[in-house]
Structures are given as structure tokens and as C-alpha cells.
Amino acid sequence: MSQRIPVRELADSFRGRASEALADDQLRTNFRVAMDSLMKKRADAFPDEDEREGLREQGNHIKARALSRLPDLLEQLEEKLTDNGVKVHWAETTEEANRIVHAIIEARQGSQVVKGKSMVSEEMEMNDYLAERGIECLESDMGEYIVQLDGEKPSHIIMPAIHKNRRQVSKLFHDKLGVDETDDVNELIQVGRRTLRTKFMEADVGVSGVNFAIAETGTLLLVENEGNGRMSTTAPPMHIAVTGIEKVVENLRDVVPLLSLLTRSALGQPITTYVNMISGPRKADELDGPEEVHLVLLDNGRTGAFADAQMRQTLNCIRCGACMNHCPVYTRVGGHTYGEVYPGPIGKIVTPHMVGLEKVPDHPSASSLCGACGEVCPVKIPIPELLQRLRQENVKSPAEQPKVKGGGAKYSRRERAIWRFWVALNTSPVFYRLFLWGATRFGRLAPKKAGPWTDNHAAPVPARKSLHDLARTHLEKGEGQP
Amino acid sequence: MSARSNILGRLRASLADTRPRPDDFDETLVTGPWQYPPQERIKRLRSLMEAVQTELHLVTSESWPAKVEALLEARGLANLLYAPGTDHGRQLAAHWQAGGAKPELLAYDRPVEAWKEDLFWKVEASLTGTVGGIAATGSLVLWPDRHEPRLMSLLPPLHIALLKASEVEDNLYTIMQRQGWSAAMPTNLLLVSGPSKTADIEQVLAYGAHGPKELVVLILEDA
Q: Where is the LUD domain (chain B) (predicted)?
């Protein structure tokens, strides 16, 4: 696997991919079934509304407090980790983060990497970067392993292979690993277990993400069910953790409510099978654990989001995925349609800071603003509000100086002129009456084609009498009086 | 300029003229709904752990080594990894010496590098202690150290854990405070709440993903 992993070809625009996804019955069924089940599990995990709301409020306060002291906490985290024997690195861009990771691996002459699940490493496209330099980088989370084997990208941040059913996985294992096909999920998992166990044993480096970095104690906390995260961070002689700068919290006690919110919101579990708290490399007298532990802190646009008090709230995110599970758009079009690392509602509000709004101009409007995402968010990110803000940033003229990276991509003079006309029409009584007079008399001259609307609908024809006219006649006749 | 100073500089500039938010952490939110009378704690821990396919047995501080032997025998296992430098390790070894053919006892007494292949493929079961349990979530707290290394609770397909009934606390917050975790975190601190599992294919729950396929908890009622 030394060459670049081919990623399946999809249409090159959000709209194109959405049309493809909507026409794929299998994909839609896979997502519908999964999302319904995840929504139910979350609801069952929070039977008491008051308890849930109290906890969400607290989650929000903990993250807001951490962000309000972010530079201090990052320094404290670095100091504590350094005292504990962990080496801390800083990267402004994904390119820089990849270079750091590569240099660390080179210094140890490593050639095999096993990875626990890490969305930040997806941001970095670390697998490709290392593969191009002759280092095998194998995903070890079952879902990640499946999508990597098929040359795909994850379609959900906590359920990477949610778009596939068991038959598709069985066929994949048969084709790639030469095992017999089976409909038994247990057997499929055992195939993954056997294959990956050899890799855990042989790997010189384990890479993982971080769920919470605790400044007070210098601890990296990871949650998982499979044990692959523990394997990746314990079995190889070196562990490299990569994380975004927003993952730091102040105190160990702060993770108690956040952990509860995370696992219940994500999977409806009271807790994950493993909560793995790492505070340093193997000590001189210990018999296992990595001899070296590194932490790479990545910016990649986060300081840009941080600079805007409203958009800063995107950094509250604890990556539970509840917003996508509850999103009517995500459920229908699936994760790959978004074409970026983070899909769904959260993806729409964090991606612009990383890649620029001009690269994802359709994302903010691919939403019905139904509000479900904001309602379920465990740290109360007002996602619909931020989507509206991005819609505004999207159409700002250069003179209006968009504040979000890549803003103004959808600015159109024509659209702006139409809106100016609309505003003038509705704020000037004379102009408005004149328009009404014309519309009611010459309405049938209105164009029969009105953009995409008339592809599926009849063109609107203004009525002969306006509502104002009808009301006036009605009142003059004295009808409707008590 | 280094990445570090650039990042910190940008963050500081964005925070100019702002004040840190107050620490309004309210512990009752994470303790209030999760309190149980002492006799209920074990019951709750048990039902939550059984719901995720964990086997639990009530034993005594005298009888547990015999139970371990019986568990291995029932499964026809050939060996057991143990920690010879711990109290429970010594008690187990003493029981093993007293008569009868038993599965082989393997001591984790050398660095992982010295026998990695055996640890990954040959060891069939392990026995470890715990430093407590959590009733609210059905969790064990493991505090690996030089006597009882981390991989013991991860590599063998069967993991047997000893839990003292008196060390089961109501919730994570309580046990964290009572044991003073934040003052002295070990290299690796673990919460374990069942055998390894995954639902990555069609959300169908499958046990034995990468860690132990089976978790057995022996609750020492008199300890």
C-alpha cells in the first residue's frame, strides 16, 4: 500500500453528488435505518429532560470557559505534558503537521503505523502523506479499516462505514483479503480482528486522536469501544497523538459532564467500553506502553474561527455526531455528498474556516434550518444561527469585507440589484402602488420561464385584483362588520 | 516566528479586552442523579455490565482463586497471565501451587518486547485487580503499574478482574475526588465497561473487536 490510495470518483459539486446520492436507494436505506436507530438511542439515553438540559448548559459553560482562556490553557497543557515526559509540537497548517509527524517517525526509522480513529488525521490526509513517503499507515477502527480497504473516506465522524451494509463489507473482505463471503457480522468482525492484530504487534508507531486534553494534569483522554485505540496507544513503542487546539479543557473534573454528554449523544451509551487516560510514556520501571509519546497541536483555521466571537462557538464541538444523526439533509444525501472531512451540520460550520467558504459555497444553504441540530447539540452550538451567518458571509461584496475565510464567493451584482429593487419597492408607498397597478393589469405578460422553479411548477401569474383591492372593496361594502 | 508563538499570538489578540469566563462548575449536576444506597450500588453495576455481556460473580476474598480456576476449566483454557508482584497475584500463585493439574500460570515479569508474540497470540486469559468500580455507568477503574502492566487487560481474549465491593462508588465524579486522581495521575488510567465491542457494520453489536472477547468480574463481597 505504498501508492496513493485511490478515492472513488464522485461528482465534483455538492449539487451533483446530492443528485447521485438521492438516486441511490441502497445508500438512502442504509442511512435512514442507521440514523433512525441512533436518534432513538440518544433519546433513550436522556430520559429526564431537566437532567439533559442542565448537563447541556454545563457542557456549554465548560467549553466557553476553556475557550475564554485558550492560550493560557494550551501553555499549561504543554507544560504539564512536558513534565510528564510527553513532547508537544505545534502546527499552523496540515502540511506542517504532516511534516512534524513524518519527521518523528523518520527519527525512529519507523515504517509501519497503526491508527486509532482520528478526524484530525483525516483533515491532514496523513495516510496519503505518509504512504507517499513509503510509510504504511493502517486504520484500525473497524469502520475506518473497511473504508480504507475500499479506497473510500469516512461518511460519518463516528460511524465511518455507515453507508455500507454487511453484504457490501463481506464482498469487500472477500475481494481484498480472500476470505469466504458471509452474512454473519460477528464473523466479519473476527476477520478484521485477526488481520489487524498482526499489525498492532508489528507496528513501530501508533497514531491516535484525542477527545479531551486536560490542562490541569497533562492528560490525553480517548474514548472508544473496540480497544483499537488502546492498542494503538499502548502496543507500539511510540505513540503520536494529533489534535485540534480546541480540545483542551481546564480541569480533570470538567470531563465528567462532557464524557457523559459525548457518549450519550453519540451512541446512546452511558459510557464507552474504554475511557483511556494517558498522562505520559512508559516509566523506567514499567514493562509496557510506548517509550515515546508526542502530541501535535493543530491550528488549521481554528484561530480564524476563534477571532470571530460568533464563529468561535464552532470550537465548542466535541465531535459526537448527534447533529448529523438528526439532520434531515444528511440522512438523505449521506456523508460523502459534502465532499469534505466533516459532513453534516457541524461540517458546514467548521469546514469554511479550514478550507475557505469559496470551496464549499453550497454548504450553508443545504439546510432547511429546521433547527434539529442546534436542539440536540450537547454543547449548545447554535448551528442554525451560524448557518445563517455563513449565508450572509457568502454573499458579501468585496467592499463589505467578508470576515469568514473565502467569504463573498456567492456575491452577485445581479442578485444584489434585484434585492435593492425589492427593498425600494416595498419601502416606498408610491412605487409600490404603481407596481401593483401594473402587475394586476399586465400580469399575464409575466415570463413563462422563471429559472429552475418552472422546471417542476407552473409559472406564477399575478391575480387581477390585489389583496389590497379586495380588502378595500370588502370594507366599503361594510361586510364582515360585527 | 514559530508556529507556537503565531498560534498563541493570534489567540491572545482575539481575546484582547475580554475576561475569562467564571468557573461555575456545579457538581450536583453530575452527582445528584447518580446516587445510590450502598446495597443498590452492586446491583446497578451488575445490571449495567450484564447488559453489555459481562459476567459477574459474587465471591469472597478467600474463595476467588478457586473461582478463577473453575472459570478457566469451564472454558478449557491452557494458561493465565497474572501479576506476580501484587497481593492478589501472590494469593493466586499460592492457590495454584496447592495440588492438582491447573492451566499454566504466566507471570508478566519482563518487558513486552521480550515476549510480544506470545502475549499477542498465546495468552488465553488474564487476571488483574481494579482500584474501584462505578455504579452509575457500570465501569471498572484500572490503574496499571509496573506490577500489573497495561496490556494485561487488553490482549488476552478473556479478562478476569477482581473488584472489592467496598470500592464501588456512585459515580465518576465521586471516585475521582475520593481517590484524588488529579493530584497524581498514573501513566495510564482506564475505565473499562465491558468486553471490547463494535457496531461499525450495520450497527449490529459484535463483541471481541480488538480487546478481550469476554470480561468476567469477580466481586469480593467481604473486601
A: 43-220
